[in-house]
Automatic annotation (TrEMBL):
Reactions catalysed: a primary alcohol + NAD(+) = an aldehyde + NADH + H(+); a secondary alcohol + NAD(+) = a ketone + NADH + H(+)
Cross-referenced InterPro entries: ADH-like_C (IPR013149), ADH-like_N (IPR013154), ADH_Zn_CS (IPR002328), GroES-like_sf (IPR011032), NAD(P)-bd_dom_sf (IPR036291)
Residue span, Alcohol dehydrogenase-like N-terminal domain: 25-132
UniProt keyword terms in alphabetical order: Metal-binding, Oxidoreductase, Zinc
Protein name: alcohol dehydrogenase
SUPFAM superfamilies membership: GroES-like, NAD(P)-binding Rossmann-fold domains
Organism of provenance: Nocardioides kongjuensis
Keyword Oxidoreductase among UniProt keywords: yes
Any one GO MF annotation of this record: zinc ion binding
Sequence ranges assigned to domain Alcohol dehydrogenase-like C-terminal in this UniProt record: 179-306
Top-level enzyme category: oxidoreductase
């Protein structure tokens, strides 16, 4: 089968031929229906040797939807033939975090994290999944729309669920309207926000943000601060979700924050923020840096998609085109999510 593999740090992945994996006890084999391309993959491939706790080579692709075509012994045959969304955090299922339903913070994940992040992922014709615990049934859904929900949508859902009780009447700012950000806007829309501002330097991303329910858009986070200050009910934002995470956006997030407000840093752009009392951040601030999402978050976002609350905007590519699609993502040319259909 074909697989897009990372073979050297700091280099683009290569499309190579590898054997189709054979499921052993407890494992299943999926025929990949669709796999999303995440900006995190660019951070991974750009890493110098030693930064990521992963051994090379491995197949990229951590947003995967497929159909179960084979199963090892001990797997309930009911899974065969089912379309599934893959929960890519391949947690241990036994540690305290897993027992509490916080699989994304599994204590055993000190090296490879899961699908396409240290273990072979879904940018291939087939994907081996180590346990049916990592599958969420998604019969009948369009695999292209579904794939982005397994990371972009799942991470956004994890963030929005963590803000439960903080959104009613709040002013929120979303920085970065790409794969994750455009889904976060949709997940925030049902909340009773006072005001939702989206920030993105790309004009088409700002147009998309307005269509998805943003009350205002700006090209840069500093302009969002100005826009909020000019409002009668000014005083900054109660919630800032930063899907970029560069030094520039994180500084702006701090400047935007209202007293008692929360900054959620999702983007891995290398920025930092000083968490110190009585300095730059307003009284009562909170800062969080969540990672991916739980299995329950995935079930929820898949259910929200089934009822039309959330719908990924996608651009579709073949596996041969995947390297070019990554280049397009890097250049900021993708609207919503790039999805590969092998
Ligand atoms: P993307 O490339 O699809 O979207 C990023 C968006 O940010 C683009 O629309 C871009 O125009 C915009 N942007 C760039 N610079 C900006 C700036 N200064 N101000 C405002 N907007 C700006 O990326 P993505 O796949 O959505 O991922 C976003 C980030 O989240 C990446 O850093 C990725 O690694 C990270 N990520 C984190 C998690 C997690 O669990 N914490 C999960 C997935 C992705
Ligand atoms: Zn665990």
């Amino acid at each position: 089968m074909r697989a897009l593999r990372l073979t050297a740090w700091g280099s683009p992945p290569e499309l190579v031929e590898v054997p189709v994996p054979r499921p052993s006890a407890g494992q299943v084999l999926l025929r990949v229906g669709a796999a999303g391309l995440c900006h995190s993959d660019l951070h991974v491939m750009d890493s110098p040797p030693g930064r990521m706790p992963y051994e090379l080579p491995f197949t990229l692709g951590h947003e995967v939807v497929g159909t179960v075509v084979d199963a090892g012994p001990e797997v309930d045959p009911v899974w065969l033939g089912r379309q599934v969304a893959v929960h890519g955090v391949w947690s241990c299922g036994r540690c305290r975090a897993c027992r509490r339903g916080r699989e994304n913070y599994c204590f055993a994940l000190t090296g490879p994290v899961g699908c396409g992040l240290g273990y072979d992922g879904g940018l291939a014709d087939y994907l081996l999944v180590p346990d049916v615990r990592h599958l969420v049934a998604a019969q009948g859904a369009d695999p292209v729309r579904l794939a982005p929900l397994t990371d972009a949508g799942l991470t956004a859902q994890h963030v929005v669920r963590s803000l439960d009780g903080e959104l009613d009447g709040a002013t929120a700012v979303v920085i970065g309207v790409g794969g994750l950000g455009h889904l976060a806007l949709q997940l925030l829309a049902p909340a009773d926000l006072a005001c939702l501002v989206a920030v993105d330097p790309r004009a088409d991303a700002r147009t998309l943000a307005i269509r998805l329910g943003a009350d205002a858009v700006t090209a840069d986070a500093a302009d969002a601060a100005e826009w909020l200050d000019d409002r009668e009910d000014g005083h900054g934002a109660d919630v800032v979700i930063d899907f970029v995470g560069t030094p520039e956006t994180m500084r702006a997030a701090g400047d935007l924050l209202a007293p008692g407000g929360r900054i959620v840093v999702v983007g891995s752009g290398g920025g930092s923020i000083e968490v110190a009392k009585g300095r730059d951040l307003p009284r009562g601030f909170a800062v969080a840096a969540p990672f991916w999402g739980t299995r329950r978050d995935l079930e929820e976002v898949v259910a929200l998609a089934a009822t039309g609350v959330v719908r990924a905007e996608t651009e579709t590519f073949t596996l041969d085109e995947a390297p070019a699609a990554y280049a397009r993502l890097r250049a900021g040319g993708v609207r919503g999510r790039a999805v590969v259909v092998p």
